[in-house]
Specification:
Elements lengths: L8 E4 L2 E4 L7 H13 L45 H13 L1 H22 L4 E13 L2 E16 L4 H67 L5 H35 L8 H5 L20 H4 L1 H22 L4 E12 L11 E14 L3 H67 L5 H36 L13
Antiparallel strand pairs: 1-6, 2-6, 3-4, 4-5, 5-6
């Protein structure tokens, strides 16, 4: 036998009573004795309050000033983007997303486990039937038995009640996780659609520049034919045209990949949205104005992921109480009522009735420290849950501050690039006129057209980033985007 092995020693005192239940008071006396002897061992539940990390009284950033557009963070948030396709895609994702269905299945499983834990506090009743035939020497005997068996474990130290509390907290945490998943799916769908629209805008800029480069090439070819330009300008025009043309397939590939990612969020095959997206509005969704921001402390109630993390602490706390209670004695009552005879006819006689009642106490006296180790492990699990909650709070605060900064600076970036793009387009037009009039060289025209292309591409990217920052901020505020208020109870 290995030296690390130490057998557990159990103290068990069964008290069987057969036949006519001659001592009906004895099981009650045993229960009273156990209760009196073990009441001092009742564990005091540890404190469940987990202090939150220091919360600021206000946000460092602020939302850009704008007119109110209605209920803001309520269920109509997606309609505020003035894009009916975006709202429709979000609704479809909330109905068919596979991650959301997984969260719903986990919630159903958690609620079923609550019923399982609650059933452990109730008596159990079973039935049994047996038939046997035995033979010894020259004698043969039959034995028939039909009966009911019942058992009940007295929850003296609250182990079963704690298990039920843990299961219930786990179910509530799963419900909050479902709500957080709904928020994430809605936001990710909106982000995927905005990314698709942004790439399509970049593609339009590239195709417009490509058309302009083709016109320039035709002009250069005409000038070469008339002797007004040399082959150097022709090769420069060809090179610029090919560079712009090479950008188009890369953008088309990114556009297709974004379309496939959007279809996946809706639980559909990759090419299922091609026809609908082809008819989408030819512009990025217009981000609505934000409502008044909640205080940082209010974020703890708004964010469903924080609520799920908090409920996980409750579950671990109840599990700790269960683990400690399991180290204490357990008290069980069991009984049976049966008909036993050698023949079927004999089962109907009064003498065939057999009854029994037993009470038992089970207490592990020595387990080589396994019970204490389980308690220590559960305390560590509780500490991990508390740390995870505190970390989630800090991340939530960071999400909001990042979103506010991205939104404010993103608007400044878009405004600057709008002016830069307009100036670059005007410079390219003047450079073309001056080149055709012979007042400037061809290189100046090419540089102006490249600047116009880069400015237009940067503007499209900045607009996409601004719309995405708005969506991420809405998500970080946890304001119930597209989520019914009854999500936790559904």
């Amino acid at each position: 036998m290995p030296p690390a092995y130490k057998p557990a020693v159990h103290a068990r005192r069964p008290f069987p009573f057969r036949s006519r239940l001659r001592s009906p008071r004895l099981p009650g006396l045993i229960a009273a004795a156990v209760l009196a002897g073990c009441s001092s061992l009742q564990p005091s539940p540890p404190a469940g309050d987990t202090p939150a990390p220091p919360l600021p009284t206000s946000w460092q950033g602020s939302a850009p000033a704008a007119e109110s557009t209605g209920d803001g963070l309520a269920g109509g948030a997606w309609q505020g983007f003035a894009d009916p396709l975006l709202a429709a895609l979000v609704d479809e994702a909330l109905a068919a997303n596979l991650d959301l269905q997984t969260a719903q299945a986990r919630l159903a499983q958690a609620r079923a486990l609550v019923d399982v834990a609650a059933a452990g506090q109730q008596p159990t009743l079973g039935s049994s039937a047996s038939a046997g035939r035995s033979r010894s020497s020259n004698q043969t005997g039959n034995s028939l038995r039909v009966g009911l068996d019942a058992s009940w474990e007295a929850d003296l130290f609250g182990a079963n009640a704690a298990a039920t509390r843990a299961a219930r907290a786990g179910a509530e945490s799963s419900a909050a996780t479902l709500q957080a998943t709904r928020l994430a799916v809605a936001a990710e769908t909106a982000l995927a659609y905005v990314a698709w629209q942004g790439v399509r805008e970049q593609l339009r800029v590239a195709e417009a520049s490509l058309a302009s480069q083709r016109q320039t090439l035709e002009l250069v070819q005409a000038r070469v034919s008339s002797g007004l330009a040399d082959h150097l300008e022709l090769q420069q025009a060809n090179s610029t045209l090919e560079q712009v043309q090479a950008r188009v397939p890369a953008l088309r590939l990114t556009l297709a990949q974004n379309e496939h990612a959007l279809a996946l969020l809706l639980g559909q095959p990759p090419a299922a949205l091609s026809a609908r997206l082809a008819a989408a509005p030819q512009a990025l969704p217009r981000a609505p104005a934000l409502p008044a921001l909640p205080l940082p402390a209010e974020l703890l109630r708004r964010r469903p992921d924080l609520r799920a993390a908090e409920l996980q602490i409750d579950a671990e706390l109840a599990t700790l109480a269960q683990t400690e209670a399991q180290r204490k004695p357990s008290f069980t009552l069991s009984g049976n009522l049966a008909l036993q005879a050698a023949t079927l006819a004999g089962l109907g006689h009064a003498a065939a009735l057999v009854a029994g009642l037993a009470a038992g106490v089970d207490w592990t006296i020595f387990d080589a420290g396994a019970g204490a180790a389980r308690v220590a492990a559960q305390r560590a699990a509780l500490d991990l849950a508390r740390i995870a909650w505190r970390s989630a709070v800090l991340v939530a605060l960071q999400d909001v501050e990042d979103g506010l900064a991205a939104l404010a600076l993103g608007e400044q970036r878009v405004a600057t690039l709008q002016r830069a793009s307009a100036a670059a387009d005007e410079a390219a037009s003047f450079a073309r006129i001056r080149w055709q009039a012979g007042l400037t060289d061809f290189t100046t025209l090419l540089d102006a057209e490249r600047s116009a292309l880069n400015a237009g591409d940067s503007l499209a990217s900045a607009r996409t980033d601004l719309a995405s920052a708005h969506i991420r901020l809405l998500k970080s505020l946890g304001g119930g985007i597209g989520i019914p208020s009854s999500a936790l109870s559904s």
